Inverse folding.
């Protein structure tokens, strides 16, 4: 009779523990469902971002339409106004995305912390339950046999014990599955954190672009004094400068694209304006390609890499409209920004005599190939002294670290610039 009571008491205890564990696992399931993060799940945040993106698309179309209306002062100012507004909407949309993601991350992180504690506690209880059950079950068959009043009673008790053991195994599996789900949710959260970092970087670039665009508009108004005739005169000057760049490329065989040009070493990176990575792209949204007129921009990108900014390419400079002036805005400013880093050119002189006696830091020189007073092409002098210089030529195929005089004469130099960062 004592054996029968022991078995019955053990079964009652196991039933109670099962109920406790089941309750705990139902809590785990509820936590697992609530912890699933989704970007923009904060109610109206998603609709706000959608509205901002719709406005961005509308402004992009409007900018495109204005650019097709022709080169007039009013259309140019209209383009600038809409570009400024477009960038501001991009800033607002990015800020909204960051806010929404940050709220999701904070909320889900707290819930996952609670889930982790629940999982740990329930697993401990479950494991101790299983150990106790199996220890008690080591002599269960004999106990059941001795304590049973008849065959029917014995079968009932055996079936009950088997049910409890199988149920314990299922509970263990469910707990482990909850841990897997938790790990998956944690990976999602880590991905969202990386997304926030990327959005913050993009926000910084948009903010820089906005300031540059406002400055460019003010410069245009200052240059033209709001006068259409003055605008037309400056337009002709800009076109003449761009034509000289393009004519240089034509005189050297054209602006055909090249592949496999980029070379990086201890000095920095060599870029070619005709590289397939960017050569076919329009210079600051104009009708001129980087391959045909992007010598100065490509030279500046190479200097950036010399000073440690190896993430900067011609595309980095070209993506910031505030880096350009002129009418259209296709002439590189003396002060520019790329990937958040600023750089400035300052004029040292207008002949080879202005080149330092020994080149330790890169020097950008402008060459007049047609004999006129203005540069038709720009290259980077990277080393040398006394008239013997090595250069990175952004036009010549594989023009990395080649002698300057192998392509140009010292007498063709009409501009010498130092770059500060």
């Amino acid at each position: 009779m004592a054996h029968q009571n022991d078995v019955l008491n053990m079964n009652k205890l196991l039933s109670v523990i099962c109920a406790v564990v089941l309750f705990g696992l139902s809590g785990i399931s509820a936590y697992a469902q609530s912890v699933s993060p989704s970007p923009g799940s904060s109610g109206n945040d998603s609709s706000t971002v959608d509205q901002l993106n719709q406005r961005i698309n509308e402004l992009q179309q409007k900018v495109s339409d204005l650019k097709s209306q022709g080169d007039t002062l009013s259309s140019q100012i209209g383009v600038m106004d809409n570009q400024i507004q477009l960038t501001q909407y991009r800033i607002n949309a990015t800020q909204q995305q960051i806010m929404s993601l940050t709220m999701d991350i904070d909320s889900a992180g707290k819930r996952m912390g609670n889930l982790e504690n629940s999982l740990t506690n329930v697993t401990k209880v479950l494991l101790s339950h299983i150990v106790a059950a199996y220890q008690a079950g080591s002599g269960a068959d004999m106990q059941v046999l001795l304590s049973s009043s008849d065959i029917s009673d014995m079968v009932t008790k055996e079936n009950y014990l088997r049910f409890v053991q199988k149920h314990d195994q299922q509970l263990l599996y469910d707990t482990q599955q909850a841990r897997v789900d938790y790990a998956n949710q944690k990976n999602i959260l880590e991905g969202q954190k990386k997304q926030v970092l990327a959005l913050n970087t993009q926000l910084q670039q948009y903010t820089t672009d906005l300031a540059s665009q406002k400055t460019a508009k003010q410069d245009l108004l200052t240059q033209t004094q709001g006068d259409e005739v003055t605008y037309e005169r400056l337009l002709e000057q800009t076109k003449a400068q761009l034509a000289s760049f393009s004519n240089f490329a034509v005189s050297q065989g054209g602006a055909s694209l090249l592949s496999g040009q980029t070379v990086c070493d201890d000095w920095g990176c060599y870029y070619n304006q005709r590289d397939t990575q960017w050569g076919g792209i329009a210079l600051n949204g104009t009708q001129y390609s980087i391959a045909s007129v992007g010598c100065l921009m490509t030279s500046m990108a190479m200097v950036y890499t010399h000073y440690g900014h190896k993430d900067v390419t011609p595309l980095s400079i070209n993506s910031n409209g505030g880096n350009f002036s002129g009418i259209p805005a296709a002439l590189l400013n003396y002060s520019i920004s790329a990937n958040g880093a600023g750089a400035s050119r300052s004029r040292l002189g207008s002949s080879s005599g202005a080149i330092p006696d020994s080149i330790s830091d890169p020097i950008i020189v402008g060459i007049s190939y047609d004999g006129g007073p203005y540069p038709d092409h720009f290259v980077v002098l990277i080393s040398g002294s006394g008239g013997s210089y090595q250069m990175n030529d952004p036009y010549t195929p594989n023009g990395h670290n080649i002698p300057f005089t192998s392509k140009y004469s010292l007498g063709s130099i009409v501009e010498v610039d130092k770059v500060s960062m």
Observations:
- DSSP finds nine helices and eleven strands in the chain.
- The first strand starts at residue 263 and ends at 264.
- The domain at 230-420 is CATH 3.90.70 (Cathepsin B; Chain A).
